[in-house]
User: Which sequence fits this backbone?
């Protein structure tokens, strides 16, 4: 942010002024009254997402305070950037093919890796960055010998010379935290209720169908050559069903929760939650889809779609609801880790106090011992070992030192844990940072009655639209509809 | 240890504004309402800047400026800048104080931009921005150095005591 910008809030307006080359942002009250939540959402609309000073913003609620610092740049350890040597990238061309109804090739072969195969190599190492409130970063220095790439070792992999290799043959994926996993793959003909709960350490390839009432909780990928029927599937990796996903038995517990993408030709009456994309080259019907990245489908019919970045479709039929943007998605595991990390920081602070106390105690005991030792020497006592008081003081000192040693070791472990969690959170934040406005892109028709909700607006279409992009403009808070067959038409829904 | 901003004022708005800005730039604040009784709390080497409300009459300006001289006697002298805060330009206290050497005057309510300007001249902003990871690494280095020293002492003690 380079220049002062005015931001309108619900009951007032502010001016955000960048100082110190954009490292510090201050807010000046221009009119009306302001609430902390409004200021934070106003800042986010301006793209100010980093280093927000919540305590300071609270002061703006007071009548007598008209300006406060609201965000400040900070340094951060940045995780490495990887070049991934397996898997498949879903880019714009792939999305277009899906929207056109082309089949999505089976992802299983792309994720298949051999023992000792190079999985990722480091393009940029661990480094310090200065992160500005508006999100842009300045690289400062490379962090040498501080972090170990093994932080990103998930399972059955080894890190060496800035590269990660697979230790076994199997199916691989990189989790949302940047951890790299390889698991052996279990190939079965079919799965059903009879197999009970499947929660072992492997990936699964089902040659036929996953039948109703199946229950899978796996740390890896699930590939199905047939269909997934009314089952509960929770995996950390990908789910790809070549013939579709259908809750034909209308079982309430039928759900798919995947850490990565969910891919199928059609999804019917299912609840799907994906850490990345949901890709459907035919139809999503009567389903609830939650995607932390993009939803790409040829047709969306009578479904509820909650998507963080983009919904790309050829047709959105009546009865559908689209909730656009991150405010409609809960990210519990991320929030949980952030809270745990905060708790770890509090524990570190408490441990510092107890170490300080022990240091004081040790200093006192050391002084008493030295004084007594000097007195003994002065009194001409030759063998201090025979003096019981001397030995008692020594034992006492040794005990305190032992406690200090243990506390310091615990402190070291906690610092390591804290820093590695912080770097993993930084990886997640980097990979999921929203660079563009959330939007819906429809190449064909979007029917009358479709409900579209963004963070602060909800509209029900009163007439069908064709070939449009509906974008949530984060700065103005407006929903902007752009018709592509007539590029001059730009229409805002107010 | 962070450097301190000394505030001699009783106005909550001013105190909070300076405190929050100081916290953002990693500087602590020390607020004093009674200069006479609190003199021993202030150690010059820790101080970055002083903001004094001259209209309160809580200090005798000449003697206060003896404590914080504003003119360098030689090159080695370290000046802690003293800024005078005031509400009314023509108040007798401010008019009297103005004649003494000082770093600058700030009319209340304080302008944040001016405060940032003052502090950024005194603090190396790039070094004072928050860096949590490095903070804990530095703390660990301190603790480790202490533990190493203590370990050496214990080893020597053990060799003496057999």
Assistant:
């Amino acid at each position: 942010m380079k220049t002062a910008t005015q931001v309108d809030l619900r009951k007032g307006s502010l001016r955000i002024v960048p100082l110190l080359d954009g490292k510090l942002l201050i807010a000046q009250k221009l009119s009306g009254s302001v609430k902390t939540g409004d200021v934070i959402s106003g800042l986010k609309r301006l793209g100010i997402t980093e280093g927000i000073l919540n305590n300071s913003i609270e002061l703006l609620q007071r009548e007598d305070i008209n300006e406060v610092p609201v965000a400040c740049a900070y340094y951060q350890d940045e995780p490495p950037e990887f070049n991934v040597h397996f898997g498949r990238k879903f880019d714009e061309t792939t999305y277009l093919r899906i929207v056109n109804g082309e089949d999505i090739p089976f992802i299983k072969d792309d994720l298949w890796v051999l023992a000792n195969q190079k999985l990722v190599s480091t393009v940029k190492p661990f480094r310090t960055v200065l992160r500005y409130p508006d999100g842009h970063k300045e690289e400062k220095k490379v962090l040498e010998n501080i972090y170990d790439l093994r932080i990103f070792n998930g399972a059955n992999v080894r890190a060496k010379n800035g590269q990660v290799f697979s230790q076994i043959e199997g199916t691989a994926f990189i989790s949302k935290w940047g951890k790299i996993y390889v698991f052996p793959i279990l190939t079965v003909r079919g799965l059903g209720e009879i197999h009970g709960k499947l929660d072992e350490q492997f990936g699964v390839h089902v040659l036929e169908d996953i039948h109703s009432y199946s229950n899978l909780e796996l740390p890896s990928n699930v590939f199905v050559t047939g269909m997934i029927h009314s089952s509960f599937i929770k995996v950390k990796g990908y789910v790809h069903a070549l013939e579709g996903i259908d809750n034909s038995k209308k079982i309430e517990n039928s759900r798919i929760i995947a850490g990565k993408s969910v891919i199928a030709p059609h999804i019917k009456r299912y609840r799907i939650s994906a850490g990345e994309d949901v890709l459907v080259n035919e139809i999503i019907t009567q389903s609830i889809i939650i995607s932390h990245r993009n939803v790409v489908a040829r047709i969306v019919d009578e479904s509820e779609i909650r998507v963080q970045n983009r919904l790309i479709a050829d047709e959105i039929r009546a009865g559908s609801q689209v909730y656009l943007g991150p405010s409609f998605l809960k990210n519990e595991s991320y929030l949980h880790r952030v809270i745990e990390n905060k708790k770890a920081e509090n524990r570190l602070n408490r441990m510092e106090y107890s170490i300080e106390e022990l240091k004081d105690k040790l200093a006192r005991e050391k002084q008493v011992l030295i004084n007594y030792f000097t007195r003994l020497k002065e009194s001409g006592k030759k063998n201090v070992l025979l003096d019981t008081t001397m030995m008692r003081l020594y034992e006492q000192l040794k005990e305190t030192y032992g406690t200090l040693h243990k506390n310091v070791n615990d402190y070291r472990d906690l610092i390591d844990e804290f820093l590695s969690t912080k770097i993993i959170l930084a990886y997640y934040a980097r990979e999921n940072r929203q660079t563009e406005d959330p939007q819906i892109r429809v190449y064909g028709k979007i029917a009358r009655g479709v409900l579209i909700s963004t963070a602060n607006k909800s509209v029900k279409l009163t007439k069908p639209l064709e070939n449009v992009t509906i974008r949530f403009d984060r700065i103005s808070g407006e929903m902007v509809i752009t018709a592509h067959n007539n590029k001059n038409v730009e229409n805002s829904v107010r | 240890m962070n450097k301190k901003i000394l505030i001699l004022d009783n106005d909550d708005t001013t105190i909070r504004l300076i405190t929050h800005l100081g916290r953002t730039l990693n500087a602590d604040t020390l607020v004093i309402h009674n200069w006479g009784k609190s003199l021993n709390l202030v150690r010059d080497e820790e101080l970055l800047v002083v903001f004094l409300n001259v209209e309160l009459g809580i200090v005798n300006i000449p003697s206060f400026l003896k404590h914080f001289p504003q003119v360098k006697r030689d090159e080695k002298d370290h000046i802690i800048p003293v800024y005078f805060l005031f509400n009314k330009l023509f108040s007798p206290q401010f008019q009297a104080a103005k004649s003494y050497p000082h770093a600058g005057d700030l009319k209340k309510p304080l302008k944040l931009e001016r405060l940032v300007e003052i502090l950024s001249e005194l603090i190396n902003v790039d070094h004072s921005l928050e860096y949590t990871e490095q903070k804990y690494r530095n703390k660990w280095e301190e603790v480790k150095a202490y533990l190493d020293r203590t370990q050496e002492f214990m080893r020597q003690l053990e060799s003496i005591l057999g």
